[in-house]
Amino acid sequence: MQDANSIESLEGASFEPLRVSDRLARKALRHTKERVIEALLFAAAGVSVLTTVGIVWVLVSESYHFFTVVPIWSFLTDTMWTPLFADAHYGILPLLAGTLTTSLVALVVAIPLGTTIAIYLSEFARPAVREAVKPFLELLGGIPSIVYGYFALVVVIPLLQLLIPGLPGFNMLGAGIVMGIAIIPYVSSLAEDAMRAVPMSMREGSYAMGGTKFQTAVRVVIPAALSGILSAYILGVSRAVGETMIVAVAAGMQPNFTMNPMEPAQTISAYIVQVALGDLPHGSIGYQSIFAAGLSLMVMTLLLNVAGHFVRRRYREAY
Prior knowledge:
- The protein is mostly helical.
- Helices cover 76% and strands 0% of the residues.
- It has helices spanning 2-12, 22-67, 72-77, 93-124, 127-141, 145-163, 172-196, 200-208, 213-224, 226-241, 245-250, 268-279, 285-318.
């Protein structure tokens, strides 16, 4: 009887709909926001991947049309690059020699100076000096490359001509030196960050054993930060290989097959700029050669990055 009365009372009662608590509602909203943010971050990452794939697709597809006319073996072994002549030759070696020579000159300048600046800022400079020097380095890295090119042409090359009589007005030496100055901020900044990431306990241990600041920097800090320093060098190499305006203005536009830095030459990137300005008609085999040259530059940079990755991993495991 009691059960029947209970059932009748339940049937007559009015029930309010269940309502989610404010805490659970906020939690659900937070999860929704996180999903939206995650989707946006994924889209941003996808844009970079799709851009890279698009660049590779354009280079490979256009280079394919070029190599249907010019054999790959001739492209890789011919020592003449004369796409503007009636008797056209498409040998990449002169452009490759100019690119490598100017890059080597730039590295000879940038690596010692950049590493020295990084050691000084990380281990010897007072905080006030470091805070004053860093903005100047960043300002040096922000100067447009065309300004560096005219600086090489108007200031550096005339000074070199005073020291080296008979030096041509356009040469790879002056262009390479200014390229080295331009990439010093990249090398020094990344190398200094790698050195400052070394734990202070390692320095204190060296000081406790009687080591000087210089000995600690050379024998403790640099070996511990070697992987990061090598990354700075690799970035400097990539920056030098891909440099365009400095070599286009100061190195000359003559595709000579030479490794002599005192001679004028043309780099791969400078040739691409020359053709892009309209020296060859669009769609011609000469115009398509810029894609083959760009593909060669991309492959060279990729090989440098892969080699640097293995070197960094080896030294990271060693230390």
